[in-house]
Design brief:
Blueprint (H helix, E strand, L loop, with lengths): L4 H26 L11 H26 L11 H16 L8 H18 L4 H9 L2 H9 L16 H15 L3 H9 L2 H16 L19 H19 L21 H21 L2 H10 L9 H24 L17 H7 L5 H10 L17 H20 L1 H8 L4 H18 L3 H15 L3 H7 L7 H6 L9 H15 L3 H8 L5 H12 L3 H4 L26 H9 L5
Helix pairs in contact: 1-2, 1-11, 2-11, 3-4, 3-5, 3-6, 4-7, 6-7, 7-10, 8-10, 9-10, 10-13, 11-13, 13-16, 15-16, 15-18, 16-17, 16-19, 18-19, 19-22, 24-26
């Protein structure tokens, strides 16, 4: 090859940096960061989208050309069969004309997709890689591409929706927990194809509307299988990239490149960061956040009897969670949640601020209470929720927590605003009530962490969790089962949020003391401060690293380390009665 991989990566980084400077300058000119609601001139927005797309496509083409002769072998026992099936998919597409597919052709396509799915359902990474190397994902792209000419809800697709859903399911099986394939999707042209297809589907069903009526005219067909499948695949890819991001503890992000060519780990990490930043910027610029907001705002009631809608909402929230977590990993700051130097060149933070967290809080309130967020007084909390609703709540809270990590002041400002703060209090109280009747640790822990982020160093939000119908949110946290005050694993979940909710708030501390001894919180802080390595290593995440499933439970990621000493003294001090 004329150009080595490190040289190619450096060139990609250089191109990306030049583009990001252009975007930043352009954003400043049109005030996208300071006033996102201000309408761009169509020409400005279109130019920005085109520039971003050209940058991504150019780097993808260079990446793909470099890998043409480097497709690694696979030890899959189904390698030959998967190669044949991939070829069969391409062959079936080549013989079709421009009209709708005949029934026998559709049946043949479904049989081939079914054979691939049955192999990949075994979750063998070697099988997944073998199918991708054989051109399987490219073949699936050609199948899914038939929906692009569809410009309105009444147009009949050449391939039936069921077959398209089968194709996106195979795509998901090919990428699920397979870092090699997800990396290929990111660095190649495939991720752009998925985003373009997703925005196409959302554009068909979600009309462009002003913020005042956004979501009212969303076509409910958007909750059918294909759009949901695209969101699921995207969330799966994001999650896999997060789990296998290139830092000091992970394997090379480009496994098909030889070790000799991967001489510089910083270049590897820079290439990943640049690529992810480009991707997130592109997603924001094409309006995906706004379209998803329209979908969330269209939900005005429960989803217990609408499993398709519930599944869509889960994966849409998962998509946003993945975007925020990736953005946190690549924005280049010290990766402390409490670092005030927050710069997000992708525009994701601004987009989520402008849409009040893409309407997810509004959706969750309506799903839980079957009422609108504008009239929360008419709602009454339920004692328990169906599993569909619980899963929507879990994914929504994970998104909230990932956005809080990305920009804590923005999260507290949005959720603490008039109206939304009351809705958040109702949501937290109701979900805590559900968890007191039904065991659901994953949901309970997300609620606990979210309340902590909502209140930490924010006096106004601290007031919100101790007000309202009794028992209040704060009282419910103090009344959790005994294990949360005795089991070290569960103490680590609860105590940081109690500290955040009560620190420097005398009234909240008095409420807390009615249920437990504040000395327990002081001792917890002291134990963390005295644990070797905690004070030095837990207050920030290494560059290129994002919060893992356990990292975000650490005290330093939930309460600022510089306040530990003062907080300990606050909770030790006896108040006069």
């Amino acid at each position: 090859m004329a150009e080595s991989f490190p040289d190619l990566m450096k060139d990609m980084i250089c191109r990306s940096r030049k583009f990001n400077k252009l975007v930043s300058r352009r954003n400043a000119e049109i005030h996208v960061m300071t006033d996102y609601n201000q309408t761009w001139e169509d020409k400005d927005k279109e130019n920005l989208e085109n520039i971003k797309r050209e940058a991504i496509l150019h780097m993808a083409k260079e990446y793909e050309s470099l890998l043409e002769t480097k497709n690694s072998g696979s030890d899959s026992p189904y390698k030959a069969k998967l190669q044949r099936l991939a070829k069969d998919l391409l062959k079936q597409l080549q013989v079709q004309d421009s009209g709708s597919w005949a029934n026998n052709k559709v049946s043949a396509l479904d049989r081939t997709l079914g054979e691939v799915a049955r192999i990949l359902e075994k979750e063998n990474v070697a099988d997944q890689i073998a199918f991708q190397v054989a051109g399987g994902l490219t073949a699936l792209e050609h199948i899914l591409q038939v929906v692009v000419p569809v410009t309105n809800v009444n147009t009949i697709s050449r391939i039936p929706p069921k077959s398209l859903c089968n194709a996106i399911n195979v795509y998901n099986l090919t990428c699920n927990n397979c870092s090699e394939n997800c990396t290929d999707v990111l660095f190649s042209n495939k991720i752009t194809f998925l985003m373009d297809l997703l925005i196409h589907q959302l554009t068909v069903y979600v009309p462009d509307e002003s913020n005042a009526i956004l979501g009212r005219n969303t076509n409910k067909q958007v909750f059918e299988g294909l759009t949901t499948g695209l969101l699921k695949v995207s969330a799966v890819v994001f999650g896999c990239l997060i789990a296998n991001r290139p830092d000091g503890n992970s394997q090379p992000i480009t496994p098909k490149i030889s070790t000799q060519e991967m001489k510089s780990k910083p270049s590897q990490g820079d290439a990943f960061n640049s690529r992810v930043q480009d991707l997130i910027s592109y997603v924001v610029n094409i309006g995906l956040i706004d379209k998803l907001c329209g979908c969330f705002l269209s939900v005005q009631g429960p989803v217990d009897e609408n499993p398709k809608t519930a599944t869509f909402l889960q994966h849409a929230a998962g998509f946003l969670h993945g975007m925020c977590t990736l953005c946190f990993a690549v924005t280049g700051r010290s990766h402390s949640i409490f670092d005030n130097n927050r710069q997000d060149p992708t525009g994701l933070t601004a987009a989520l601020q402008a849409t009040d967290l893409a309407g997810v809080l509004h959706m969750l309130y309506c799903v839980l209470f079957h009422g609108t967020i504008s009239d929360p007084g008419t709602s009454s909390p339920k004692e328990s929720y169906a599993q569909n609703t619980v899963q929507v709540a879990i994914q929504s809270l994970r998104f909230f927590n990932s956005f809080a990590a990305l920009d804590l002041p923005a999260f507290q400002s949005i959720v603490g605003a008039e109206g939304l703060s009351l809705a958040f209090r109702h949501i937290a109280s109701s979900l805590l009530g559900h968890c007191s009747h039904v065991s659901c640790e994953s949901l309970l822990h997300e609620v606990i962490v979210c309340v902590g982020y909502f209140t930490v160093n924010h006096p106004d939000n601290q007031v919100i969790v101790q007000s309202g119908r009794h028992p209040t949110v704060l009282q419910k946290l103090c009344q959790l089962p005994f294990q949360y005050f005795s089991d070290p694993r569960l103490i680590k979940v609860l105590f940081p949020s109690l500290i955040a909710a009560c620190y420097n708030n005398l009234q909240n501390k008095i409420i807390l003391e009615q249920e437990m001894s504040c000395v327990l919180l002081a001792t917890f802080i002291q134990d963390f401060a005295q644990t070797p390595g905690q004070a030095d290593t837990q207050s920030y995440q290494p560059e290129g690293k994002c919060l893992g499933s356990q990292d975000y439970l650490e005290l330093a990621n939930r309460f600022p380390q510089q306040a530990w000493g003062e907080a300990r003294q606050f909770f030790l001090k006896k108040e006069k009665k």
